[in-house]
Design goal:
alpha/beta; Aldehyde Dehydrogenase, Chain A, domain 1; 39% helix; globular; Aldehyde dehydrogenase; Aldehyde_DH_dom; oxidoreductase; Ald_DH_N; Ald_DH_CS_CYS
Length: 478
Amino acid sequence: MSEMVSAFSESSSDSSTDVAGSPAAVPAVLARVRETYDSGRTRPLAWRRQQLEGLVRLFHEREQELADALAADLGKNPLESYVTELSLVRAEAEHALKHLEKWARSRRVPVPLGLQPASARTEPRPLGVVLIIGPWNYPVQLVLAPLVGALAAGNAAVLKPSELAPATSAVLADLLPRYVDPEAVAVVEGGQEASTALLKERFDSIFFTGGERVGRIVLQAAAEHLTPVTLELGGKSPAVVLDGNWAAVARRLVFGKLLNAGQTCVAPDYVLVTEAAAPALKKQLVKAVAEQFGKDPSRSKDLGRIVNEQHWERLVGLLDSGTVLAGGRSDRGSLYLEPTILTDVAPDSPVMQEEIFGPILPIIEVRDLAEAMKFINSRPVPLAAYLYSNSAADRKTFEEGVRAGSINHNASTVQLAVPGLPFGGAGASGTGAYHGKFSFDTFSQLRPVFTKGTLLDTLRFAYPPYTGLKKRLLRRLL
């Protein structure tokens, strides 16, 4: 999410505070959480279940407070907040509860004949104390969904919500200690100073959702302690349109693009459409926007607002990158930007240089699928790539020829609701993945355990000196 989601780049007015009082208190917060982890308290499955059940209760009992915070920070409709944030995290926690025992089970591994008698197994073990740095665009989901995996795997955690969503940050800091173990999960609020203080500390894993620039800062800080890092970044996710039911294609593009006012890391960033299909698609896109948000979207309760004035100014500055087919109106006071469709967009125009992260959809015409794929592959690897086509052959060609964090056919953004699918990027769009069991695996070490008795020393044939007989035996056995 190119510089759109950052724990560092911008600070709120209360950037020097955290739940313990100041960045200077971060070492004490971390020491408390590590002491809890070191005590062994987080390892038993019973404790893990209690934490996951607490998160499920949180979403049942505090939905209104969470929705109110999201409305205050981003102007989100309560139902959109439920669909895209609250219900998703609750489903993650419920899924983890259902499968926890199976995920945490050790598994036997065959032992070669030359090492018999012996046994071998793998067992998932927690990493330790993990740091989760969240973004502002989905400030509940993208903090608590990783936490589900961390707790299911038996870790303790320190959470850093974004200061650019202050109401949500505050409500998480207030509510979480009531529903999960407050000695094992800490929330640190604040801006750049708090983030910097956290990254000076040693963690056992860091999970960061944000932009490429800040991702580099996190990696550099983690390198000081050789801390493993999961990076969930973003990029310009393309949508290629070849054919289909034009009304349905347009509705799905508009829905995926305009969730959270376009401030979604997997939103279709731009459209590549064939010259033959362009007229029909453009007509239906204009119609789909009106269907979903009315003739005057500023009056719609279903369209969110831009997070702050800086991002609003940046987005308004991109409107000159092409011809406005529809939209283009804005209001600084309410941080409103009308859903805007741009045509006649040059590949080197400002709107095509970085992730838009707002309700602007550029359309670029191409000759065919081959040209579209060449265009995509000439740019950094996106977090998601979308193809709209009824042709199975074209879909297969797209899958084999495009590198992206995920490949999606005839739908936009909704792939995030499938708990069995990993969510993560590739190349510039991130490293590592989570959701469902992939979250559990991300926060676990798959530790090997090998056991052999000493009553009979069957390894003697492998000890020096290496005689002719031993050579023959070892070569046969190995």
